[in-house]
Backbone:
C-alpha cells in the first residue's frame, strides 16, 4: 500500500472538491482496501463519504424508493418493508459475503467493485484488465468466467445488487462534477461490455449518490449458486421481475450475473415472456432463449446448466 | 506392569479444556502475539518467477527505507536457481509492516527466466522442462506385487476400473508459520508456532552454529500445524539471522499469501485402479497405477522419497493378488510436507470409490461388501455399529433412484492408523501448600494436550483438574517428541501417569500419611516442610498402544440442476483405546470431519500453467468449509480402555472424503471421480456442462 491522504467530506460539494484527479471514495472500504493492498489502485487521497447527507438512508415512497449510495448491505437485508416490496433486492443483499462484510459494505461499493478474476487479483500477473496485453483466463483457468462478452477480457461482473436492481429497472444517480446524472443499470455497466479495462461506466471522480427503484407493482426474486453454502461468490446469479395477473406475466425481466461483464439480459427473452402464462415450460423456454449467443470457455460450460436452472427457478418464484 | 485406575473421575469425561478461559479471553499468547521490548517485524522477499537463475540482488534501496533496520539475503547469497513461484530470496526487518513492504518492493533482483512446468500431466511428457537439471521429472516406479494378479483377474466374476484424482491440498493453519526470535549474547529465545519445540531448537542451533544449550524454544500455544510445522523452516532461519544482525527481537510470521506457497501441502494423486471379485463379493485381484506431485520434492531427484506420493494399497481391504506401481512427478511448485494422516485420505478415496463401483456391479449392499473383505475385527464392529446409528438399511437405495432434481445419497468408508506412544519425560513439583506443577516439554498443537495432562494428574492424586498447573511448550522442561503421527497423547499420558504416581509415593513417604490423595492431600503436603517435592517420571510400557481403525458414513443432497452438494449428516465411529479427554477427542473428530469435507468438496491449489503462479493464495478462492456448510455430526468412540491411550487425531479425517464421494455417486447414479467435488464436476458427470442441452 502506498501512502495516502485522508479527508472527510460533509457535503456533495466538498466530496467533489477533495477527490482530485487521483482520489478514491471511502465508504465500506471492503473492495478498496484489497485493491490498495495489492497495489491495483494507489489513490493519493481517500475521501470518507460516510457522513454525506442522506447517503446512508433508505427512503420509501409511493412512486419510487430511494436507496442512498452509502446504505449498508446489511440494512438492505434487514429492511422488512423493502423485503415485501422488492424481495429480489433483499435476497441479493442477503447473499453478499458474510454478515461481517454486509455490516460494512455499501450499495455504491457493491455496484462499483472491481472484477474478482484471479488473474486480475494476482499481484504478479499483468493481465489485459490491468493494462497488459493478454487475457490469461482465456487460455487458462476460467471456470469462474463469462459466457457472454463483447471484448477479449472474460472476467464477469460479480455484484449481486446490480443484477437485482437491473431486473427492477432501477436508476443510479451519479454525481459527476456538479451534475446529478441519472443512468440506468445497463448504462452503468455498458462500457465494461466492450472495454477490457473497464469494470463499469463510471469516470474518475464519479460517485453513486443514490439508487432509485420505481414502484411498479412487479414481483421480484433473486437466486444464486455458489460452491459453498454461504460467504462465497456466485457461480451464476439470476434476478427476475414481472407483474403476475391471472397467471400471466407482463413487464417481465430476467437478468443474469457472473456470466458477463454486465448484468446480462436479453430483449428477446422479455418479448417472449410478455403476456405468457408463467409455468415451468415457459420458464424453461426463456432459459434456452437467454443462452442464445453464449460462448463457453474450456472450463465454464457447466455454468450453462446453472443458468437454465436459475432462470427457471427464479421465474417460478414470481408465481409463488 | 502399571495400569490405568479402574475408577476414573476426570479421565474419559467431558471436563472443560483447562486453557479454555485463556483462549477465549485472549490471555493465551501465541508466537504471533509476542512483543518483546524493541521487537521488529520481519518479512520475506519471494521469487516472482516459477523458475529463474538469480544472479544479483541489491538490498541498498531497501536498507534506506525509513524504519528498516536490516536486510539480509537467504543463506547470505543472491545466486541460486529458484524452482517455484514464492521461493524465499531475502528478508528485511523494520519497525512496521508497512516499512517492510515498502522495502521489499524496492529490492532489485536480476534474474534470467527459465522454462518451467507446473502441470503434472505436462511434466510427465518427454519434452517438458526439467525441474531438476540432473534428474528426470518422473521418478522410477515403486512396484509391489503379490500373488498372481493377471491370472486372478481371469477368475473374477466382476471386474471394475476407475481413474481417481485428488488435488494438492494446503494445510492452511489459522496461525501461519513463523517465530518471534530474540538473539542476545547470552542466548537465543525463540517463540515458535511449532509442533516440535525440540526439533526447532535443533534446527535453530544447527543452522546458526550455536550450542543447543544457548537456545530456548517456547510454544505454549499454537494455532494449528497439521504436519507442516515440524521443523524450523527457511522463515525461521531468516528470522534468526535478522535478529542477530539487528541486535533486536524480530517477529516474522508468514502472510496468508506466503503460507499458501512455500510451507507444505498434501501431494496430488492420479490413481488408475482395477478391482475384481468373485460372484459372492470376495475380492480376488487388485491393480493400481498411481502418480502425483509433491512439487519440487518429487520426481527423479528424490525418487519420490520426500514426496510422499505413494499411497498404501489396496488400503484397508484384503486382496490376495495385488500389484501397485507408483511414481512421483516433479513440478515447479512448493514441496509437500506431512499432512494429517499422510497418504491415507487419497488412498481411502481411491479404494473406497472402486469398492462402491464393485458393489453396484455385484448388486450388493456396499456395507455387506466391506464386511466380507475387511480383515479388521474392530472395523467390522464399527461398520455394523455405524450402519445401525446412521440408519443405513433405511437410507441406502439403488444409485440415482431418488426422485426429483434434488437427490439424496449415502456412502461409507473406513480408515486405519498407527498412533502409538514413545519416550517422554516429565517432572512434578509438589509444594508444601498443596499446589502442584506438572512440567513436560511437549507442545499442544490445539488438540488439548494440557487438558490431557491435567485430568490424568487430577485422577491419580484425587484432585480437580483446575488444581493442577500444567507447564508445557518449553525446551527447559523434560523432553518429549514432536507432535506428529497422532502420537502426543500416547507419548505424554504414560509419563504423566508415572510422574504423578511417583510424586504421590514421595508425598506419602515424607508425610507419613498412607493415602495422601483427595481430602488428605493438603494435610499431607503441609508436612513436607519448606522444600517442595520434585520428582521425575517417564513413559512406561503398558499404558498406551497403537493401531486403530475407524469408519464414517455420509448422507448428502445433490441438486442435479445446479451441481450443488450439501452434506446432511456424518456418522463417525472411531476406536481409540482409553479416551483420556472425551471433550477434546470429540473435538478432534469434528475437526477431522470438517477437514475431510474441505478435501471432498472445496479445497484445491490452482496453478496457472502460463505464468507458473498460484492463482488462489488466499481464503477467497482457496475455499475452506464454513459454518453454513456444516452437517449434523454424530461422533461415537468405540472405547477399549484395556488397550491404553492411542492417538486419534489423524484417523478421524481419513474416510470423510471417500464417504462423501460415495454418497454423491449413490445420489446421482454417476461417479465424480475427482476431488474436490464441485458443481462444475457434478454437472460434467451428469453430462450437463455443454451448451447444447
Residues:
Amino acid at each position: 500500500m502506498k501512502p495516502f491522504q485522508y479527508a472527510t467530506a460533509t457535503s456533495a460539494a466538498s466530496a467533489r472538491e477533495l477527490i482530485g484527479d487521483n482520489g478514491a471514495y471511502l465508504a465500506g472500504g471492503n473492495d478498496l482496501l484489497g485493491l490498495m493492498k495489492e497495489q491495483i489502485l494507489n489513490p493519493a487521497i481517500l475521501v470518507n463519504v460516510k457522513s454525506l447527507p442522506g447517503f446512508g438512508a433508505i427512503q420509501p415512497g409511493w412512486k419510487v424508493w430511494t436507496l442512498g449510495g452509502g446504505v449498508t448491505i446489511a440494512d438492505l437485508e434487514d429492511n422488512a418493508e423493502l423485503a415485501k416490496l422488492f424481495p429480489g433486492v433483499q435476497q441479493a443483499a442477503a447473499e453478499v459475503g458474510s454478515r461481517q462484510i454486509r455490516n460494512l459494505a455499501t450499495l455504491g461499493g457493491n455496484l462499483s467493485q472491481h472484477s474478482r478474476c484471479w488473474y486480475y487479483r494476482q499481484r504478479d500477473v499483468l493481465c489485459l484488465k490491468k493494462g497488459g496485453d493478454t487475457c490469461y483466463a482465456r487460455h487458462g483457468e476460467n471456470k469462474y468466467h463469462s459466457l457472454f462478452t463483447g471484448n477479449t477480457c472474460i472476467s464477469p461482473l460479480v455484484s449481486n445488487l446490480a443484477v437485482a436492481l437491473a431486473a427492477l429497472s432501477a436508476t443510479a444517480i451519479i454525481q459527476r462534477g456538479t451534475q446529478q446524472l441519472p443512468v440506468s443499470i445497463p448504462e452503468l455497466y455498458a462500457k465494461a461490455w466492450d472495454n477490457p479495462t473497464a469494470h463499469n461506466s463510471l469516470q474518475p471522480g464519479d460517485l453513486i449518490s443514490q439508487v432509485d427503484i420505481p414502484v411498479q407493482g412487479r414481483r421480484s426474486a433473486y437466486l444464486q449458486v455458489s460452491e459453498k453454502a454461504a460467504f462465497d461468490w456466485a457461480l451464476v446469479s439470476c434476478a427476475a421481475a414481472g407483474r403476475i395477473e391471472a397467471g400471466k406475466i407482463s413487464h417481465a425481466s430476467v437478468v443474469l450475473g457472473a456470466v458477463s461483464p454486465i448484468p446480462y439480459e436479453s430483449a428477446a427473452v422479455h418479448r417472449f415472456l410478455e403476456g405468457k402464462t408463467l409455468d415451468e415450460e415457459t420458464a424453461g423456454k426463456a432459459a434456452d432463449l437467454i443462452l442464445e449467443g453464449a460462448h463457453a470457455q474450456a472450463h465454464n460450460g457447466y455454468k450453462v446448466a446453472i443458468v437454465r436452472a436459475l432462470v427457471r427457478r427464479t421465474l417460478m418464484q414470481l408465481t409463488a | 506392569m502399571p495400569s490405568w485406575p479402574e475408577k476414573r473421575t476426570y479421565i474419559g469425561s467431558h471436563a472443560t479444556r483447562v486453557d479454555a478461559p485463556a483462549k477465549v479471553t485472549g490471555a493465551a499468547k501465541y508466537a504471533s502475539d509476542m512483543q518483546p521490548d524493541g521487537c521488529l517485524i520481519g518479512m520475506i522477499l519471494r521469487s516472482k518467477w516459477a523458475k529463474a537463475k538469480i544472479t544479483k540482488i541489491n538490498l541498498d534501496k531497501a536498507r534506506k527505507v525509513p524504519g528498516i533496520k536490516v536486510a539480509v539475503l537467504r543463506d547470505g547469497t543472491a545466486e541460486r536457481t529458484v524452482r517455484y513461484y514464492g521461493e524465499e530470496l531475502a528478508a528485511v526487518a523494520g519497525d512496521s509492516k508497512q516499512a517492510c513492504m515498502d522495502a521489499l518492493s524496492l529490492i532489485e533482483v536480476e534474474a534470467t527466466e527459465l522454462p518451467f512446468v507446473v502441470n503434472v500431466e505436462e511434466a510427465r511428457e518427454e519434452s517438458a522442462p526439467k525441474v531438476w537439471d540432473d534428474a528426470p521429472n518422473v521418478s522410477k516406479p515403486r512396484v509391489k506385487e503379490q500373488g498372481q494378479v493377471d491370472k486372478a483377474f481371469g477368475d473374477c466374476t466382476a471386474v471394475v476400473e476407475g481413474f481417481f484424482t485428488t488435488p494438492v491440498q494446503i494445510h492452511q493453519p489459522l496461525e501461519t508459520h513463523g517465530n518471534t526470535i530474540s538473539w542476545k549474547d547470552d542466548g537465543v529465545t525463540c517463540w515458535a508456532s511449532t509442533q516440535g519445540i525440540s526439533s526447532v531448537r535443533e534446527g535453530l542451533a544447527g543452522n546458526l552454529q550455536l550450542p543447543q544449550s544457548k537456545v530456548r524454544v517456547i510454544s505454549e500455544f499454537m494455532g494449528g500445524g497439521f504436519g507442516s510445522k515440524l521443523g524450523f523452516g527457511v522463515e525461521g532461519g531468516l528470522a534468526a539471522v535478522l535478529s542477530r544482525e539487528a541486535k533486536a527481537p524480530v517477529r516474522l510470521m508468514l502472510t496468508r499469501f506466503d503460507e499458501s506457497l512455500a510451507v507444505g501441502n498434501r501431494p496430488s494423486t492420479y490413481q488408475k485402479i482395477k478391482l475384481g471379485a468373485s460372484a459372492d463379493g470376495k475380492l480376488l485381484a487388485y491393480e493400481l497405477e498411481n502418480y502425483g506431485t509433491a512439487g519440487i520434492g518429487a520426481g527423479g531427484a528424490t525418487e519420490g522419497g520426500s514426496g510422499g506420493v505413494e499411497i498404501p494399497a489396496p488400503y484397508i481391504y484384503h486382496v490376495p493378488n495385488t500389484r501397485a506401481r507408483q511414481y512421483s512427478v516433479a513440478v515447479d511448485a512448493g514441496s509437500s510436507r506431512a499432512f494429517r494422516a499422510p497418504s491415507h485420505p487419497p488412498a481411502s478415496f481411491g479404494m473406497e470409490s472402486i469398492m462402491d463401483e464393485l458393489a453396484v456391479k455385484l448388486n450388493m449392499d456396499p456395507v455387506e461388501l466391506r464386511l466380507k473383505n475387511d480383515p479388521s475385527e474392530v472395523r467390522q464392529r464399527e461398520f455394523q455399529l455405524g450402519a445401525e446409528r446412521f440408519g443405513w438399511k433405511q437410507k441406502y437405495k439403488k444409485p440415482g433412484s431418488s426422485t426429483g432434481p434434488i437427490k439424496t445419497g449415502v456412502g461409507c468408508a473406513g480408515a486405519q492408523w498407527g498412533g502409538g506412544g514413545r519416550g517422554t519425560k516429565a517432572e512434578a513439583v509438589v509444594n508444601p501448600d498443596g499446589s502442584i506443577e506438572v512440567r513436560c516439554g511437549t507442545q499442544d498443537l490445539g488438540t488439548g494436550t494440557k487438558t490431557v495432562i491435567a485430568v490424568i494428574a487430577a485422577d491419580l492424586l484425587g484432585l480437580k483438574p483446575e488444581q493442577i498447573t500444567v507447564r508445557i511448550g518449553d525446551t527447559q522442561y523434560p523432553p518429549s517428541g514432536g507432535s506428529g503421527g497422532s502420537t502426543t497423547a500416547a507419548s505424554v499420558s504414560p509419563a504423566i501417569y508415572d510422574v504423578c504416581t511417583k510424586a504421590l509415593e514421595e508425598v506419602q513417604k515424607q508425610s507419613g500419611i498412607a493415602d495422601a490423595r483427595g481430602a488428605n492431600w493438603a494435610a499431607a503436603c503441609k508436612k513436607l516442610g519448606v522444600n517442595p517435592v520434585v520428582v521425575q517420571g517417564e513413559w512406561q510400557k503398558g499404558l498406551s498402544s497403537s493401531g486403530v481403525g475407524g469408519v464414517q458414513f455420509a448422507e448428502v443432497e445433490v441438486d442435479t440442476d445446479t451441481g450443488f452438494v450439501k452434506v446432511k449428516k456424518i456418522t463417525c465411529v472411531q476406536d481409540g483405546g482409553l479416551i483420556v479427554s472425551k471433550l477434546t477427542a470429540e473435538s478432534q473428530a469434528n475437526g477431522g470431519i470438517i477437514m475431510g469435507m474441505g478435501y471432498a468438496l472445496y479445497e484445491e491449489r490452482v496453478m496457472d500453467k502460463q505464468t507458473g503462479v498460484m492463482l488462489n493464495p488466499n481464503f477467497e478462492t482457496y475455499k475452506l468449509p464454513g459454518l453454513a456448510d456444516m452437517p449434523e455430526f454424530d461422533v461415537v468412540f468405540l472405547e477399549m480402555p484395556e488397550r491404553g491411550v492411542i492417538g486419534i487425531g489423524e484417523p478421524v479425517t481419513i474416510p470423510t472424503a471417500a464417504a462423501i464421494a460415495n454418497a454423491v455417486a449413490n445420489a446421482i447414479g454417476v461417479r465424480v471421480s475427482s476431488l474436490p467435488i464441485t458443481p462444475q464436476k457434478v454437472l460434467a458427470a451428469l453430462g450437463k456442462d455443454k451448451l447444447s442441452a
Q: What stands out?
A: Chain B touches chain A at residues 48, 85, 98, 101, 257, 405, 559, 561-564, 566, 601-602, 606, 608-611, 613, 615-616, 620-621, 623, 625-629, 678-680, 683-684, 686, 688-691, 693 (CB under 8 Å). The longest helix of chain B spans residues 488-511. The two ends of chain B are 71 Å apart (CA to CA).
